[in-house]
Amino acid sequence: QVQLVESGGGLVQPGGSLILSCAASGLTFSRYDMNWYRQTPGKERELVASISSPSSTTDYADSVKGRFTISRDNAKNTVFLEMNKLKPDDTGVYYCNTHMGGSDYWGQGTQVTVSS
After folding, report:
1. Contact between 37 and 48 (Cβ < 8 Å)
2. Cis peptide leading into 88, omega within 30 of 0?
3. What is residue 31's DSSP assignment?
4. Whose CB among 59, 85, 96, 110 lies 3.0–4.6 Å from 22's, allowing a Cys bridge?
5. Which residues contact 10 (CB under 8 A, 6 or more apart)?
6. Higher model confidence: residue 79 or residue 100?
């Protein structure tokens, strides 16, 4: 059974930084693309960043380019999202995601709040 467990969220001031982690189990992690999404109240879930397998090619939403960095450690079955220069608009619940065998798998989410 695929499980994705996010951690690292919290309250941070504008301009600050956070690193989110997503630990994966129940799959051959190195074979799959991994994604980070975020959900804010009243908006659809938004794809923030993706990292492919096996090349680790990355892609970002325009709103986070130059501020966020996605990376993966296949030895630890973990994907990371480093978030810098955070803005209040970055506030939301951040979810880890992968697509495997025709199904989408999601973690439980981690709350990020950017506020002074």
Report:
1. yes
2. no
3. G
4. 96
5. 18, 111, 112, 113
6. 79
